[in-house]
Amino acid sequence: MKRRILSMLFVLAALATGVQAQWVVSDPGNLVQGIVNSVNEIVETSQTAQNALSTWKETSKIFEQGREYYDKLRKVNDLISGSEKVKESVLMLGDISEIYVSNFGKMLTDKNYTQRELNAISAGYNTLMKKSSRSIAELKNIINPTGMSMNDKERIDLVNRVHREMTHYKELANYYTRKNLHVSYLRAKQKNEQQQVFDLYGKDERYW
């Protein structure tokens, strides 16, 4: 009987160890921190790079390296019980970064912008990512165990506020992109070169 009990305990211990190891790999707190670190690295690189092209190349590299965090996060059911908004908020940080990386890379080849304008556009995206990262960093107060001192109302209020902020920042990123692309379109139209703009960015009516 004792041997049977000991055998069962060893099996349970082995299972518990396996579950814990799996949790370390997909620990939501670590994923969120990884995403925040990645975006902060993009922000820092954007501030120190010598020109818009080198900025974009470095930030693109960082963004691609950080994709694994977003991919893993999409597979996590809940970061905290009953709050899909937390997950949505963090993923929106990735959306904002991707809006910058994908669109600004095309702008760099667009002759309708001056170098000074490209630098200013890059700085604008940088500001949006910086503010977004700060909002997401606040969520660590409820995702990580150190935030257990917060009561339910405080957690709900924080989640709702951050979700509103991230939705706003994502909308701003899209709006900022549309406005900048529209400038290129108007300049191309004056030269009867609209097709070149369409070929570069696509003929999506939301931009024009």
Order of helices and strands: HHHHHHHH
Class from secondary-structure proportions:
mainly alpha
The rounded Rg comes to 22 Å
Mean pLDDT across every amino acid position = 78
Domain module tally: 1
Low-confidence stretches: 2-25
The 3D shape can be described as: elongated
Number-wise, the strands total 0
What amount of the residues lies in strands? under 5%
Number of helices: 8
Residue share in helix:
over 70%
List keywords for this structure.
single chain, 208 residues, mainly alpha, 8 helices, elongated, disordered N terminus
Layout of helices and strands, plus pairs?
Elements: H1 2-25, H2 28-48, H3 52-74, H4 84-107, H5 115-138, H6 140-143, H7 152-190, H8 194-201
Helix pairs in contact: 2-3, 2-4, 2-5, 3-4, 4-5, 4-7, 5-7, 7-8
Briefly say what this structure is.
The chain has 208 residues and is an all-alpha fold. It contains eight helices and no strands. It has one domain.
